[in-house]
Specification:
- It is a single chain.
- By secondary structure, this protein is α/β, with parallel strands linked by helices.
- The protein has two domains: 154 residues, Quinone Oxidoreductase, Chain A, domain 1, CATH 3.90.180.10; 144 residues, 3-Layer(aba) Sandwich (Rossmann fold), CATH 3.40.50.720.
- Helix content is 28%, strand content 24%.
- The strands form three sheets. Strands 3, 4, 5, 6, 7, 14 and 15 form a seven-stranded mixed beta sheet that branches. A six-stranded parallel beta sheet has the order 10-9-8-11-12-13, with helices on both faces.
- The protein is globular and about 60 Å long.
């Protein structure tokens, strides 16, 4: 792999010009080129290999996310890169090393310059596409299972949207941690045919019905944690399926509706309801030591081939408009990724 672009190959960068959802994607997102800038002593120039298109990226483009940058901006929260050049004070990274940019916004580009502290080294012989998807969804699933409740091996957790990217990660990580998991989906065809485990098909409209199905599977054992990616009436169904003093964590709003929780569950069964956003969790000083363990654990699990996500299609960075339209479609069987100029097939 040649590690520097020539003068005629200035790095491509995706730029969002407008977040008005009424404007066609082709008119509000463009590719521009930037010349290479010199490095500061503690900076690293990286070449992006592959980048993930996250729901957060699409929400930002439509002014629907928790953090909304001013336009124009470079999107992208997640990807994997190769080190191209290091600043004069950096001795622990070298050209050709593979790295994850963590907490770096604006990774949809062929090249970018980041601070050394924002990079985590990863094995160069592992699946580059899996590494491109490691920073967000697997980290969300890991923190939900490890740091939202005191879950012991053999205890029960229930999740909805089990066929989502986070749901897929949660299934694999729960198996790794020996946690019993009940997976809820809304359609029979959403049940993963290549996996065993406990699956329920439920539309979320009858909380008592879901509760009865969960109790049948667990045989009355304690259900300590519910993971809610949907909100709306699905929250009430999930809360009802938990045991007294159980914890419901709302981490997504796929329904777009306010979460509904029964007062009976809150008052008499003492169900605890908490919101979760990975960015907030990492930025909380109380989680500083826990946060340091998240990515080393995930990198090790991924290296053991115990954590894999489906990929539906990979697009060239220059095909960004088509890639975004594809990513926003329902019924996908995997993630839509972008590849940069340094992607080595």
């Amino acid at each position: 792999m040649e590690h520097f672009l020539t003068e005629s190959q200035n790095a491509r960068i995706v730029e969002v010009l407008s977040c008005d959802p009424q404007v066609p994607v082709s008119e509000r997102i463009r590719i521009r080129q930037d010349a290479r800038m010199p490095l500061a002593p503690k900076e690293v120039r990286i070449g992006m290999l592959a980048m993930n298109i996250l729901p957060a990226d699409l929400l930002q483009m439509n002014r629907q996310y928790g953090h909304q940058p001013s336009v124009p901006y470079v999107p992208g929260h997640e990807g994997v890169a190769v080190v191209l050049e290091t600043g004069s004070e950096i001795t622990d990274l070298h050209e050709g090393d593979r790295v994850l940019p963590i907490g770096v916004f604006g990774v949809w580009a062929d090249e970018l310059v980041v601070q050394r502290r924002s990079l985590i080294a990863v094995p160069s012989n592992s699946d580059v596409l899996q590494q491109a998807m490691l920073a967000a969804n697997p980290a969300t699933a890991w923190v939900l299972l490890k740091h939202q409740a005191d879950i012991q091996p053999g205890q029960w957790v229930v999740q909805n949207a089990a066929n989502s990217a986070v749901g897929q990660c949660t299934r694999q990580l729960a198996a790794h941690l020996n946690i019993n998991l009940i997976n809820i989906v809304r359609r029979p065809e959403a049940v993963a045919s290549d996996e065993s485990g406990h699956w329920l098909v439920d539309d979320g409209k009858e909380p008592d019905s879901l509760k009865a199905e969960v109790q049948k599977i667990t045989r009355g054992e304690t259900v300590v944690l519910g993971l809610d990616a949907i909100g709306g009436v699905a929250s009430q169904a999930l809360a009802a399926s938990l045991s007294p003093q159980g914890r419901l964590v709302l981490y997504g709003l796929l329904s777009g509706a306010p979460s509904s929780i029964s007062a009976h569950d809150l008052v008499f069964r003492n169900i605890q309801v908490h919101g979760f956003w990975l960015a907030n969790w990492f930025s909380d000083p109380e989680n500083k030591q826990k946060a340091k363990t998240v990515y080393p654990a995930l990198i090790e699990i991924a290296a053991q081939n115990k954590l894999r996500m489906n990929v539906e299609k990979i697009y060239e960075l220059s095909d960004i408009h088509e890639a975004i339209v594809h990513s926003a479609q329902g019924g996908k069987q995997g993630k839509v990724l972008l590849k940069g100029m340094y992607f080595d097939e």
